[in-house]
Design a protein that fits this description.
- The protein has eleven helices and six strands.
- By secondary structure, it is of the alpha+beta class.
- Strands 1, 2, 3, 4, 5 and 6 form a six-stranded antiparallel β-sheet that branches.
- α1 runs antiparallel to α3 and α5 packs antiparallel against α11.
- The longest helix has 21 residues.
- The protein starts with 12 loop residues before the first helix and ends in an 8-residue tail after the last strand.
Amino acid sequence: MASSPPKRGLFSLGTWSSQYRLRLRRRRSHANTLGVSEQKYRRILKCRLVFLDAASAFGGAVGAFRLVVGMWIAPDLAAARRVPGDSPSFDHGNFDAAAIGRALDEFNPCGERIRIRFADDTVDLATARARIDGALLGPPDCRDFAQAVLTAAGRSRGPVIKVREQWSTLPSRKVQQATAAPPALLLFALYGTFYSTMIWLQQFQMRLRIRAAEPMNFMLDSPGKADLQGILPRELSDLFEAHFGFAYRPDCLVARLAHSRLPDWMQ
């Protein structure tokens, strides 16, 4: 997929930095009402402004930074079982990953030059559940799958990232591609500068109503589990149902799972 031209989004770095500075300063009184001390507020504000200055100064020099994003979605198996003759399985070797990438690009315009490439495979529900329950070896968040995507992203060509061969060596419940459980974890790579990928991801999380991505939460303590939960909009649930053949519940999670080398100023 070719790089998309800059589009109007919730913010772009040109205006986001100055507006964010002003927004943080104006929230001092609100922070005090939340029990955030003046000293803690100043420390948080200083850290955020240093980040923005560094991103503005060095972001353009980072080059092709790659960030692998994991998106957990919840297939509605109860709805699938209500369809006569239907079974909760999916052919993971037969879906249009490039089309899903284009749809997400259109769903989340952020004003930055970003390229999105989806993995040509997905992590099925049985594998994701077994990892979380500890019944299957490997990280519960399937970070090893994401690391394989990152490795393949640097050498795979074309509109999608070819990962099936690498994934076949990882602990999984997917015995056959054509009869595996429905997709539960989608993995895709963002290509751009460091700051443009971070802006795209934060805006994407905000569009999914993930409270932990809201700027105000930067001034508060660590988010709770409820703050990490997102709501899948109808536009995306319809997209996934069209491609995967399953209805999806509104629950979703989005997280950074792997990335290429960070800029020197973050080391």
